[in-house]
Structures are given as structure tokens and as C-alpha cells.
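3.2 Worked example (two chains)
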Amino acid sequence: MTKQNINSKEGFTIIEVVLVLAIAGLIFLMVFVALPALQRSQRDTQRRNDMSRVDTSLVQYQTNNMSAGSNLTALPKGPSYWAACKDGTFTSGCDVDSNAGASADDDVARQFVQRYMNSGTDSTTNTFQDPDGVYYSMYITENIGDKTSLSGEDVTLTLGGATLGVDSNKLSLETEFKNHIVYVIPGGKCDGEYVISDTPRHFAIMYRLEGAGVYCIDDQ
């Protein structure tokens, strides 16, 4: 009787090895491409949540200041641009100029962020941060009279043909800070990625997302 070697096994063919490597490479490529997109989406979700917090805080501000006789809208008075400080403090100004006009008062936006987006009037450390770690700046405009949109450079805000915003020629902080401005627009409401005029007591908020254009939310 002929004996068979029970330990003999057939190996993988070249085609099988290549096929396994191709599948593994495809899986790796899918993960490599999908993971950054997923992370961007998660950061943008957090940004939308942060803008919702701004919206809620502005409504609370209105409630707290409704009796202010000189401000019938009870909204923070613009134009006011406050550039977030790199060290996370609430210093006024932080050496960033804006072209919001000579009447722009940075304290209005700064105090709103300090008192309503943080722990209160005694807050000394800024916690209002974009998910990428950069502190949010805030620009409260005057009431608008026409369609409003963010510019492609994410530095300026166009209000009915007039350009307002941070003067990029005078920007003394790192470039990244000009991409983290929360725009508060009294007298407006959202129309997709734009803001159109509405009654003075209403407002809209605009912020440029990382992977999905401009996010607009209002109090309607």
C-alpha cells in the first residue's frame, strides 16, 4: 500500500497573494481617505453646536437688556470687532485692526464673549474655542440693508455691496485667527448661506465651516 504524506499542504498561489494584497490596499486607501473627511465633519458639527450656543446666548442677552431704552432691539451694539487673544485672556484689542469704522467698539463683542460664552463676568480665561484649538473672534455688525455674504477669503463681510471686516493688511496675529471670526448680524435672517434683511430685533450668525461652506443660523 502506498503511504501518503499527511503533512503535505498546498501553498498560496501568486494570484491569491496578489488578490489579498490588493484588497488590503483598497481597505487602507478607503480608511486613509475617509478618516480625514470624518474628522472634518465632526469638527464642523461642533462648530454648528457652538454657533447654536451663540444664538441662544444672544436671545438671553436680549432678555436681560430688553428694558434698555436707547436700544430697542436689545442686541449688542455694532459695529464691534474683538480679536481673540492668543493667550486666552480677555484683553481689549489684541492688536488687530478692523475696517469696521472709527465707531467700532471692541469692548462690546469682547464683553459678550466673556460674559455669555464663558463662565460670567468674573471669567478670566477664554474657553470659547474652535475645535481646532484656535479661539473664536467676534464681529458684531450694524443693521444690514441688503443681502450679506462672507467673502471667499473669509476675512471680510459684504453688506449690501459695502465690505466690512478685518483689514488683512493690518492683521498682526497669525493668519489662522482671521479664519475664526463669528459674524453676528443684527437685523438679518438666513437665506441659505446668505443673510437678508429683516426687522431690527432679529439677528443672524455666520461662520465659515472647514468642509461645508458657510453655516448660517438665526433666531427665527
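3.2.1 Second chain
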Amino acid sequence: MKLLLVEDNLELADLVKDALNGAGFIVDHVSTCDEAKASLMTSNYSGVILDLRLPDEDGLNVLGFIRNRSDSTPVLILTARDGLADRVKGLNSGADDYVLKPFEIEELIARIKALLRRPGHAMGTVLKLGNTTFDTISRQVTITGNPIALSRRELDVLELLLRRAQNVVTKSMFEDELYGSNDITISNSIEVAIHRLRKSLNDAKADVYIHTLRGVGYILSDTPSSDM
């Protein structure tokens, strides 16, 4: 799942981005309100982490930009503004959560995951299809209760397929969800990741199957036939 981090403190941004990457998220980072608005216009995000003291405008302008588009993407404000009036204003402006600096990175990650588990959002803590279970907290996949080792990219691909099980996931959806705006992608990187994941699941005797719809995308199903 891809997040937008809006933070002008580059040292803090790198710390948060690295921690979120380690928790399984893809993160785009920008430093200004204008950059945030441009990113929101060109990419889809599962959530936004928003500082308020930005060099060009107040971060609440980004929040207003999101909500004025009738966009319900979860927004977590991450700021040093600790006054009651600031917190009330942020929440009343449409923020879903408000975290004060300094903060513990583990709590930040937990709060983001909690936001994405709310009704209307896509992040369950445990994903399951057939005999395959993916715990999104521990990033552990088990087949009939037995853990299997998957690469970071295989985990990312499997999570996206499980979240959209029985539905088509196009190549463009993979690219949008699994790569940050600054990532360099190879033309066949998705195909390679799918091939490796298929082999890993087959070797572990998983009863889920990745079907290829040529020219369209992929479907994860618990039936071996593509006639669904």
C-alpha cells in the first residue's frame, strides 16, 4: 500500500520513510504543499501523513485540497503544534488522526495501520484465501499453518493480489501500488515478480492460483481453472 509523506524536515522524513518501508509500505515523500497537491493529482494513495508547518503554505491547505475533492483518503497530521485549538482545528478540518512531535515510530506505524483498518478502507490485519494466510503486521505468510519465506517484492505482490482476490489487478495497478514516484522500474519487473511468487506458492503447495489474463492483468483465485 502506498502512502504520501508530506514533511519538510528531511532527516525526520528519511527516518519515517525507512520505518514505513520496513513495515511493508511504499512511500512517496514531498516537502511542500504544492508538491503534495501535485502528487495527489497524479497518484492514488492509501493514506497521507501530513506536517502542518511547511515552507510554502500551512499543511491544512493540503487537507482542505483533499477533502474538497470529496476524497476520503485517511490523513494523519504529524506536527509539533500541540495546542488544543490546533488539534481541534485539524480534526474538524477532516484529519483522521493527530500525532504530536516528538513521537515513537512504532506508535506512528500502529496508528496508520489502525486508520487503514477502519470501515471503507482496505487494510485488514490478516488476509486469507484457501490455505494461504498473510499476517500484515508480522509480514509472515503461512500455507496450512506452515511459514514460507518470500522476498520483499513477492510479499508486496501477494498482498495486493490478496486484497483484490477474485478481481483483476492490472499491470498499471501493480506499478501504482508497489513503486514510489522515484523508483526505477524495469519493463518486465511485474512479470518476473509474478513468476517467482507462483513458483514459491506452488513449491509450498498453496491452493491459490495466479491466473494471467493476457493484455489485461492477473487474478488470484482459489480455483485452478481460469474459467471463474
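3.3 Remarks
The chain has eight helices and twelve strands.
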